[in-house]
């Protein structure tokens, strides 16, 4: 009897092993199909991202960009819900039914002041003021490409579940995803995939900086600056006094904190005492409690400046995002897929372009060949990023994972004319395809392996904590749809 039981147990074990092997073999075949199919659409996706690169629409003004992405998804069988979360340029595109539900984030906003031709020297693009210095034209198209590929596999009966592509406007300071989270658009999602253009290929393993952004508006009295200065009260004096106090404050805040500002309105003529002036501030730190505390001190500086200059001040919080919550389970899965996809290989002409771009930098740059490599998988906080993203708010509500793909010449910083230039060439398009393939392959894993989602969810719940309650850093304000007014 015991011998028969052992034989039965051994047979069951062998059957289980055979089933797992067959499942892995089937998944591997699906991944090869996905890689080949996405690559076959290279020309189409390149044409699409270049259209958005040329549109170069800033946050909450991305009407043509969002329309193009939405139409592409509709043409591929997705149902599209547009104008979600009170944002005209936001959307959610859905295909499939039932669990699991996989979300893919797409961005498409440009940055003011970065219009640039796709050439390796600084050459502003005529008739334009904004440019894709963070590569969001590539971001959006790679994301819809991954979503479309997963849709095809669901439609063919090779995968089961639902894929949702989220059209996310105004990442650059507008906190678009925060409003989408707040509206409950991610409440039924099991895992979220995203990526970001960069000068390297790697999976994001660390966190990002939480931030609060706000516009401080000073009101004074206008007067002739020479004939009757005593009758005026300069709003610009209020701004400058505030800036001076904040700059002195830098010595007495945690050293990892970042504070940036630009004067967006300082008056119109030197001989007129400005009755209105505005300064735009960001406060960042990896600890959102520190962000809140330092921001409160910036507000006090504004109030003190108004008191000292006999002006009045008001402020509007225009954005606020959390620090990113990494998920090691999803990181490991995505990294294997990135290794399978590989990096970006340059043609001789692209190498020449890249080397010329690199001559514009004043620091030591990596070898051009690094675009073809995959970064090692870092652990802990070694992958922390000094920037901020509203993806972070998503990550505190759904297990989330992302990657960087080499869409820019190695050594290129984001928010630069060099990034805009690279993003308008095949260098950018090739990196975009790395991201699209990697997200599609990770989506295949998630749709075919319930244990992967379960493990990622358990980790997410443990790290987030049982008592966690999400509260947006920007409060309950409506989307700041006009925060880019005047900067197009």
From TrEMBL:
GO CC aspect terms: cytoplasm
Record-linked InterPro entries: Amidohydrolase, Aminobenzoyl-glu_utiliz_pB, Bact_exopeptidase_dim_dom, Peptidase_M20, Peptidase_M20/M20A_hydrolases, Peptidase_M20_dimer
GO biological process, one term: folic acid catabolic process
Signal peptide region: 1-22
Residue ranges occupied by any Peptidase M20 dimerisation domain in the UniProt entry: 212-304
Record carries keyword Signal: yes
Designated name of the protein: Aminobenzoyl-glutamate utilization protein B
């Amino acid at each position: 009897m015991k011998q028969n039981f052992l034989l039965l147990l051994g047979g069951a074990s062998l059957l289980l092993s055979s089933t797992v092997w067959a499942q892995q073999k089937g998944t591997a075949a699906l991944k090869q199909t996905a890689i080949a199919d996405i690559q076959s659409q290279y020309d189409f996706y390149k044409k699409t991202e270049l259209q958005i690169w040329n549109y170069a629409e800033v946050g909450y003004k991305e009407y043509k960009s969002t329309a193009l992405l939405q139409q592409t998804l509709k043409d591929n069988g997705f149902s599209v819900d547009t104008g979600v979360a009170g944002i005209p340029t936001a959307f959610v595109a859905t295909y499939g039914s039932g669990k699991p539900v996989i979300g893919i984030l797409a961005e498409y906003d440009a940055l003011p002041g970065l219009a640039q031709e796709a050439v390796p020297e600084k050459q502003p693009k005529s008739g334009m003021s904004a440019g894709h210095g963070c590569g969001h034209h590539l971001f959006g198209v790679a994301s819809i490409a991954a979503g479309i590929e997963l849709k095809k596999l669901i439609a063919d009966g090779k995968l089961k579940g639902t894929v949702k592509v989220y059209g996310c406007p105004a990442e650059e300071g507008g906190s678009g995803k925060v409003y989408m989270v707040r509206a409950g658009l991610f409440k039924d999602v099991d895992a979220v995939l995203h990526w970001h253009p960069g000068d390297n290929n790697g999976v994001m393993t660390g966190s990002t900086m939480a931030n609060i952004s706000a516009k401080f508006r000073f009101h004074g009295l206008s007067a002739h600056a020479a004939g009757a200065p005593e009758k005026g009260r300069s709003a610009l004096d209020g701004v400058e006094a505030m800036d001076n106090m904040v700059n002195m404050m830098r010595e007495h805040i945690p050293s990892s904190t970042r504070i940036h500002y630009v004067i967006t309105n300082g008056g119109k003529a030197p001989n007129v005492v400005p009755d209105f002036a505005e300064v735009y501030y960001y406060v960042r730190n990896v600890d959102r409690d520190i962000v809140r505390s330092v921001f409160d001190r910036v507000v006090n500086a504004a109030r003190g400046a108004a008191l000292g200059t006999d002006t009045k001040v008001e402020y509007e919080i225009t954005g606020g995002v959390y620090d990113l919550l990494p998920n090691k389970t999803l990181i490991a899965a995505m990294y294997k897929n990135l290794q399978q996809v590989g990096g970006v290989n340059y043609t001789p002409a692209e190498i020449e372009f890249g080397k010329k771009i690199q001559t514009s930098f004043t620091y030591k740059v990596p070898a051009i060949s690094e675009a073809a490599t995959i970064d090692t998988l870092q652990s802990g906080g070694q992958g922390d990023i000094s920037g901020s993203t509203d993806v972070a708010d998503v990550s505190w509500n759904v297990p989330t994972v992302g990657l960087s793909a080499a869409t820019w010449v190695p050594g290129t910083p984001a928010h630069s004319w060099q990034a805009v230039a690279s993003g308008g060439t095949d260098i950018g398009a090739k990196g975009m395809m790395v991201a699209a393939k990697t997200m599609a392959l990770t989506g295949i894993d998630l749709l075919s392996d319930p244990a992967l989602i379960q493990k990622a969810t358990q980790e997410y719940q443990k790290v987030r904590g049982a008592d966690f309650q999400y509260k947006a850093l920007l409060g309950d304000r409506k989307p700041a749809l006009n925060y880019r007014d005047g900067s197009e």
